[in-house]
Design brief:
Largest sheet: 6 strands, antiparallel
Number of strands: 15
Distance between the termini: 140 Å
Oligomer: single chain
Structural class: alpha+beta
Strand order of the largest sheet: 2-1-3-8-5-6
Order of helices and strands: HEEEEEEEEEHHHHHHHHHEHHEEHEEEH
Shape: elongated
Length: 534
C-alpha cells in the first residue's frame, strides 16, 4: 500500500516539475532571443535565383551582375534595423518602398534604415562590374556601434599613413636617399586605395560623385602596384642583384597601371573583364616574385630583407583571397588587405627606421673622419676650425682670454731625408700624442698639415696662460723617438699669441700664431738634428 501511495504522489510531482522546466525554457528563449519572430527575405528580380533568407549580422552571398540589378526585400521586424551593402563599383542605388524613394544613411557603406513591422522594398543597384553586394541586416544600435568602431580603426590607419608619409619624406629630403621618397609615395597610394575602398569620403561628400571616386579607386590600384614595385626593388637592392628581373617587374607594374587607366577610359564589358584579370593576376605575380626574392635576400643577410619577407607574406595571403579565393571568406575579402597593409606599413616603417639609423651613423662617421687627421688621430684643419669657432663663441660669452700655441717642428725634413718617411710619420704621431696628453679635453688641438700643429685654449684669467705654455714647451722639448736602437730628438719652435678680445675669425688667430712661431724660430738657436746627447 505504501508503494502505491508513493507512486501516486511521485507521478504528479514529476509532471509538475517537467512543466515548470519547459515553461522556464520558453521564457529563456523569449528573453534571450531578441530577434525571435523577425525575418528578412531578399529575392533577385532579374535572375532565376531563389529567395535568400537574411540572418541578423550575417552577410548574404547573392551576386550582382554588371548593369542594373533589382532585389525585392520582404521583412517582418519588431524593432526595425539597418540594411547595408558594399559601395565600391556602384554607379547608383535606390531603395523604393510604397512608391517612395528612401534616402540612405550617411555612412561609408550603403545603408538604409529598415522600418518596424511588415514591409516590402525594391533595391535597385547600378553596378560597374560583377560583384557581391554582401547585404547585411543588423540591429540599429549594433550597426552604429560597429560603424563607429570601424571608422575609428580606419582613422587610426589613415593617421599612421599620414605620419609615415611626412616623416619618411622629410628624412629622405635630409638624407638625400630616394628610397624614402619611394616609400612615402607607396604609403600615400596605399592610404588612398584603402580610403576609396572603404568609402570614408562619403561621410563628407554626396553620392553624386560616386562614379568619379570609383575612377580614382581604379587609379589608386595601379599607382599602388607601381609604387610598391619600385620601392621594393630599391629596398631589397634587386636593381643590383637581379637587374633583368627588376626591370621585368617594373614593366609588369607599368602594365597594371596602364590597364587601370583603360578601365577608367572604356566601359566595354569584354575590355573590363580582360583588364580586370590582367590587373589582378599581374599584381599577384609581382607580389609572389618579390616575395621569393625577398626570401633569398633574407637568407643572404641583406639588411631589412627579413622584415620585407614577413610583410609580403601577409600581403600575399590577402592577395590570394582577393584574386583566387574570392568568395571563400567575406572577412578576408574586406579586411584582409587592410590588416595586411597595416602590418606591412609598420614592418616597412621599422625597416626604413633601421636604414635611417644606419645612414645617420654612417653620416656621423663620415663627418668624424672628415674632421680628423688619419695619421695622427687629432683634429685636421677642418675639424680644428670647427672646435676653435666654438671656443671663440665661448670667449665672447664668458670672457677671459684665448691662447693660441703654434708648433712647428725644427729640421723635420732632415728626419724624412735621413731616416725615411716612416720615421717622420712616427715623429708626427709622437708630437700629436704628447699634445693630447698635455692639453685639456676642452682645448682644440690639431694638425694643420705637414709638421705644423696648433692648440687653442680658453682661460678665465691671463695668469693661467704662462704656466700652461711653459709646461707645454718643456714637455715637447723632451720628445724623442728611437730608430735602430738610436734615439732621435724632436725639436720644435712654439709661438704663442694671447687674445683678450674675441678675434674676428680663425684666420686672424692663425696669422698671429704663425707670426709668433717664426719670431720664436729666429730668436732661438736650433742645432742640427742628431743623436740625443747622453
Amino acid at each position: 500500500m505504501a508503494d502505491k501511495k508513493y507512486h501516486k504522489n511521485t507521478v504528479p510531482n514529476i509532471l509538475h516539475g517537467g512543466a515548470k522546466y519547459v515553461f522556464l525554457f520558453f521564457i529563456y528563449l523569449i528573453a534571450f532571443n531578441s530577434n525571435a519572430g523577425d525575418f528578412c527575405d531578399i529575392t533577385p528580380l532579374n535572375s532565376q535565383s531563389p529567395p535568400s533568407s537574411l540572418q541578423p549580422n550575417t552577410t548574404s552571398e547573392l551576386q550582382a551582375k554588371r548593369g542594373t540589378n533589382q532585389f525585392q526585400l520582404n521583412c517582418l521586424l519588431k524593432r526595425g534595423g539597418v540594411l547595408s551593402f558594399l559601395r565600391p563599383g556602384l554607379d547608383d542605388f535606390t531603395w523604393q518602398q510604397n512608391g517612395v524613394i528612401k534616402q540612405p544613411l550617411k555612412s561609408a557603406q550603403v545603408a538604409f534604415l529598415m522600418d518596424s513591422g511588415n514591409f516590402t522594398a525594391i533595391i535597385t543597384v547600378e553596378s560597374k562590374l560583377n560583384y557581391t553586394p554582401r547585404f547585411k541586416w543588423q540591429n540599429t544600435q549594433v550597426f552604429f556601434k560597429e560603424t563607429q568602431q570601424h571608422n575609428l580603426i580606419m582613422g587610426a590607419f589613415y593617421g599612421l599613413c599620414i605620419t609615415l608619409i611626412f616623416y619618411v619624406f622629410i628624412m629622405g629630403y635630409r638624407l638625400h636617399d630616394k628610397i624614402f621618397k619611394l616609400y612615402s609615395a607607396y604609403i600615400f597610394c596605399i592610404g588612398s586605395f584603402i580610403l576609396l575602398q572603404e568609402g570614408q569620403l562619403y561621410l563628407f561628400i554626396t553620392d553624386h560623385v560616386s562614379s568619379l571616386l570609383f575612377d580614382l579607386y581604379l587609379l589608386s590600384i595601379g599607382l599602388t602596384v607601381l609604387s610598391a614595385t619600385w620601392f621594393m626593388c630599391a629596398l631589397l637592392e634587386l636593381n643590383n642583384r637581379w637587374p633583368k628581373t627588376s626591370k621585368i617587374l617594373k614593366i609588369m607594374a607599368g602594365i597594371v597601371m596602364c590597364f587601370s587607366l583603360i578601365k577608367i577610359l572604356f566601359s566595354n564589358t569584354l575590355i573590363w573583364q580582360i583588364a580586370g584579370n590582367i590587373m589582378a593576376y599581374g599584381s599577384l605575380i609581382i607580389v609572389t616574385v618579390i616575395f621569393v626574392l625577398a626570401a633569398q635576400q633574407a637568407r643572404k643577410g641583406i639588411r631589412e630583407a627579413t622584415l620585407v619577407f614577413v610583410a609580403l607574406s601577409l600581403v600575399l595571403v590577402s592577395m590570394v583571397f582577393r584574386v583566387l579565393l574570392i568568395n571563400q571568406s567575406p572577412f578576408m575579402q574586406r579586411y584582409g588587405f587592410i590588416l595586411a597593409f597595416a602590418v606591412e606599413s609598420f614592418l616597412l616603417a621599422v625597416a626604413v627606421s633601421r636604414r635611417i639609423s644606419r645612414m645617420r651613423i654612417a653620416q656621423k662617421r663620415a663627418e668624424t673622419e672628415a674632421d680628423y687627421d688619419h695619421l695622427c688621430g687629432i683634429l685636421n684643419r677642418r675639424g680644428w676650425g670647427k672646435k676653435s669657432s666654438e671656443l671663440i663663441e665661448l670667449h665672447a660669452k664668458k670672457g677671459g682670454v684665448l691662447c693660441l700655441m703654434y708648433i712647428d717642428l725644427d729640421d723635420f725634413k732632415q728626419i724624412n731625408d735621413n731616416y725615411g718617411h716612416a720615421v717622420g710619420d712616427e715623429a708626427l704621431c709622437k708630437v700629436a700624442a704628447s699634445l693630447k696628453s698635455i692639453v685639456r679635453t676642452s682645448d682644440a688641438v690639431g694638425r694643420l698639415g705637414g709638421d705644423e700643429f696648433v692648440v687653442l685654449a680658453h682661460f678665465y684669467s691671463k695668469a693661467q696662460v704662462s704656466p700652461k705654455t711653459h709646461h707645454l714647451k718643456i714637455e715637447l722639448d723632451k720628445l724623442a723617438i728611437t730608430h735602430n736602437d738610436q734615439p732621435i730628438a724632436i725639436k720644435a719652435s712654439i709661438g704663442s699669441s694671447v687674445f683678450s678680445e674675441p678675434p674676428k675669425n680663425i684666420d686672424e688667430i692663425l696669422k698671429a700664431g704663425d707670426t709668433a712661431m717664426y719670431h720664436e724660430k729666429l730668436q732661438r738657436k736650433v742645432k742640427p738634428l742628431t743623436l740625443v746627447d747622453s
